[in-house]
Design goal:
Forms part of the ribosomal stalk, playing a central role in the interaction of the ribosome with GTP-bound translation factors. By secondary structure, the protein is of the alpha+beta class. Helix content is 59%, strand content 17%.
Length: 170
């Protein structure tokens, strides 16, 4: 990489750090190309991104962002996962690490809050943003459905009574 490519890489990472909700730092302990590709696909499916970056360039990109605290974690062969959904990157990284012993979760950050490995695993156990939205819509929709059933029930009972009188008279 020449100097201009490094400057572009730092600027791109800095822009990413200013937009995302969570960054997860992983350590790659000899992953094969196929395993890295599988991890990237899993991240993409979850709505997250995974990238291996030079530690020095990543440290420069962390400056003037909420993720400055991650600088201490950037030692050795590390990869960065990020997403706008606060749970997606953590969940994908933890699930992949369960099936692949060559990926180790180092820690991460949600904004200015630095998380250790246990914090990332706890974050991964939470429901995703889409799951929370579905639950919220279900909770909001349930009372409306019950109100509609209660309101229509008396009219249905009255109609059945009239039908019974009509059948009796005939």
């Amino acid at each position: 990489m020449d100097r201009s490519q490094k400057a572009d890489a730092v600027a791109q990472l800095n822009a990413v750090f200013n937009e995302v909700s969570v960054v997860v730092v992983t350590r790659n302990l000899g992953m094969t190309v196929a395993q890295s590709t599988a991890l990237r696909l899993k991240m993409r499916d979850a709505g997250a991104t995974y990238k291996v970056a030079k530690n020095r360039l990543a440290n420069l990109a962390l400056e003037n962002t909420d993720y400055v605290g991650l600088g201490d974690m950037l030692t050795g062969p590390v990869g960065l996962a990020w997403s706008t959904d606060p749970v997606a990157a953590a969940k994908a990284a933890v699930e992949f690490a369960k099936t692949n012993d060559k990926l180790e979760i180092v820690g991460g950050s949600m904004g200015s809050v630095v998380l250790d490995e246990a914090g990332i695993k706890a974050l991964a156990s939470m429901p995703s943003l889409d799951e929370l939205r579905a639950k919220l819509i279900g909770l909001v929709n349930a009372p409306a459905t019950k109100i509609a059933q209660v309101v229509t029930a008396p009219a249905a009972k009255v109609a059945r009574v009239f039908a019974a009188y009509a059948d009796k008279a005939a």
